[in-house]
Design brief:
The chain is an alpha/beta fold. It is about 35% helix and about 25% strand.
C-alpha cells in the first residue's frame, strides 16, 4: 500500500461535463455545475435514510457482527491457504443469501507461501530469544539455520558505505519509521540489497508506527540475478537494542532458522456481487476490499473491515429498496497482500470495458472513524465528489483529499478511471498492520457503521446520477 500526504482542495466553478454514455466521445453535456449541484442536493433525504439505517437503525453493528463471525470461524486467510478458500466459499453463500444479484466467483491463480517453523536467537553478547515474522515469499534457511555475526545499518546508503563489512553476515536494518510509503521499501527491498553485498540473511525492523514487542510481516521481493537470502521482520524494540549494542562495539551473533517454503501457484477466486443498474446496467461503480490476509492475527482490520463495509454498502442500498441507474458492483479481491494479484487479473479480464467504469473504490486503510475520502480524478470530477461528500454532514465526514489509491484499483486509476479510498486513523492502523494484533479487538462497531454509511452514500449517489464522472 502507498500513502502520500493529503491536501484538501475546494473547487467550486462552472464547467461542462462529458456525457455519461458508455464510450467517451466529443458530445458534451450542456448542464452547468450549478445544475449538477442541484441534482446532488436532491439526494439529501436518501443520504439521511442510508445514514439512519447504518448508524442508528436496524443495520447498526451489522458489518461488525458479520465480520466477527467470519474471522472467528475462519481465522487468518493467507494466499493459497485452505482458510482463504473456505472464506471465499462462505462469502459466496452469504452474498447469495443476502439477495444480491449476479453473485459469482471469477477464477484467479495466486501465490502460495508458508512460513513454517521459525526462530531467531541472539547468542552474543547474551542469549536472547527474539520475536520474528518471516516475510512473504522468503526462502527458508538450511535445517541447521544460519549462525553469523550481525551488521547493523540504518539505511541503504549506510549499507553501501559499509559493503565490505557485510559479506558473510546477517544484515539488521534499524531504519527509522518516517511513514509507511517511505519506510516499507526496507521490508520490500531489504533482502535484495543485503544479498548484493554478500550478506547471508536480512532482518528488518518492523514497519510500524507503534510497537509493544510486535513483529509485523508483509511481502518482500527478490530480484533476478541477485542471490535469494532468507529475510524476516524483527520487533522495533529488538532492532533498537541491537543497534545500541553495535554502537558500543559489541560483537553480535544471531542464529536464524526459517522453514519458509514457496509452493506452485494455487487456484482461487475474486468474489463478485451486484445491484444491477436500472437505466445504464452496463455502467459500473465498483466498491471493494480484499478478503485475503496475512497468516497472523485474524485479518480483521486488514482487510476484513474494508471488505465488509463494501458488502454492507450494497446491503444498505438493497434494504432501502433503492436501485441506482448504473450497476453497483462489489468485488472482494484475493491475494492483495502478494501485490494485488486478484486485482490485476480482474483488470486484465475487464479492461476492455474500461469506458463503462464511472468510479472505482477500495477500502484497505482501516475502518476506524473516517474523516473523508482520498480521490484521484479530473478537477471536474473532484468538484462533483466534494458536493457528494456534503451529503455526509450528519456524520461530519465531508473532506475530499488528494491521491485516492488502492493496490487492487490502481490499475484502473492509472488508466484514467476516477478512484476513491477511505481516510481514517493511519497511526492506529499501522500499529496493528500485518501483526498478531490484527484481531476483532481492534475493530469498533460504531466506527464501522459510519464507514459503511460513507461508502454506501458515495457509491449510491455516483451510481444514480444521470451522468458518469467526467475524466481528464
Amino acid at each position: 500500500m502507498k500513502f502520500l500526504l493529503f491536501t484538501f482542495v475546494g473547487v467550486v466553478h462552472l464547467f461542462s461535463l462529458n456525457s455519461g454514455k458508455a464510450v467517451y466521445k466529443n458530445d458534451i453535456s450542456r448542464r452547468t455545475f450549478q445544475e449538477i449541484k442541484e441534482e446532488i442536493a436532491r439526494y439529501k433525504d436518501v443520504a439521511k435514510a442510508i445514514i439512519n439505517l447504518a448508524v442508528y437503525g436496524k443495520a447498526q453493528n451489522r458489518s461488525y457482527e458479520r465480520l466477527a463471525l467470519l474471522v472467528d470461524t475462519v481465522g487468518p486467510r493467507p494466499s493459497g491457504s485452505k482458510s482463504l478458500e473456505k472464506a471465499i466459499q462462505i462469502m459466496y453463500q452469504n452474498l447469495r443469501k443476502d439477495g444480491l444479484e449476479n453473485v459469482h466467483l471469477e477464477p484467479v491463480k495466486i501465490p502460495h507461501w508458508e512460513r513454517g517453523e521459525e526462530s531467531a536467537v541472539m547468542l552474543e553478547p547474551r542469549v536472547h530469544k527474539m520475536a520474528i515474522l518471516g516475510l512473504g515469499s522468503s526462502i527458508g534457511t538450511p535445517p541447521e539455520g544460519i549462525t553469523a555475526e550481525v551488521l547493523v545499518v540504518t539505511s541503504f546508503e549506510e549499507l553501501q558505505r559499509r559493503a565490505p563489512e557485510a559479506r558473510g553476515k546477517i544484515v539488521v536494518y534499524n531504519q527509522p519509521y518516517v511513514n509507511y510509503s517511505k519506510t516499507v521499501q526496507y521490508r520490500v527491498q531489504g533482502a535484495v540489497e543485503a544479498a548484493k553485498v554478500g550478506a547471508l540473511a536480512s532482518l528488518i525492523r518492523s514497519v510500524a508506527s507503534f510497537s509493544i514487542y510486535s513483529p509485523h510481516t508483509g511481502i518482500q521481493e527478490y530480484q533476478d540475478g541477485v542471490p535469494k537470502i532468507p529475510t524476516a521482520c524483527i520487533t522495533v524494540e529488538d532492532a533498537e537494542m541491537i543497534s545500541r549494542m553495535a554502537s558500543r562495539g559489541n560483537r553480535i551473533v544471531i542464529q536464524l532458522k526459517m522453514g519458509a517454503k514457496n509452493y506452485p501457484d494455487a487456484d482461487s477466486f475474486n468474489t463478485v456481487a451486484e445491484i444491477i443498474g436500472s437505466k445504464y446496467p452496463e455502467q459500473v461503480v465498483l466498491v471493494s476490499g480484499h478478503l485475503d490476509s496475512w497468516d497472523v492475527g485474524q485479518g480483521a482490520m486488514d482487510d476484513g473491515g474494508g471488505a465488509f463495509i463494501s458488502w454492507e454498502a450494497l446491503s444498505l442500498i438493497k434494504d432501502l429498496g433503492l436501485r441506482p441507474k448504473r450497476t453497483l458492483r462489489l468485488v472482494l479481491w484475493t491475494a492483495e497482500e502478494q501485490g494485488g494479484i486478484g486485482g490485476f487479473q480482474y483488470y486484465q479480464l475487464h479492461k476492455a470495458n474500461i469506458s463503462n467504469y464511472s468510479l472505482v473504490m477500495e477500502s484497505d486503510e482501516g475502518t476506524f472513524l473516517p474523516s473523508g475520502l482520498q480521490f484521484t480524478g479530473s478537477e471536474k470530477a473532484r468538484a462533483i465528489m466534494e458536493e457528494v461528500m456534503r451529503l455526509l454532514q450528519p456524520v461530519n465526514v465531508t473532506q475530499v483529499f488528494r491521491t485516492g489509491e488502492g493496490t487492487d484499483i490502481n490499475f484502473w486509476i492509472q488508466a484514467g478511471v476516477p478512484g476513491a479510498s477511505l481516510v481514517d486513523d493511519l497511526y492506529k492502523y499501522f500499529s496493528f498492520h500485518h501483526s498478531h494484533g490484527d484481531t476483532m479487538t481492534v475493530m469498533d462497531p460504531k466506527q464501522m457503521n459510519v464507514a459503511a454509511a460513507v461508502w454506501a452514500v458515495v457509491s449510491y449517489v455516483i451510481a444514480d446520477m444521470e451522468e458518469m464522472l467526467p475524466r481528464s
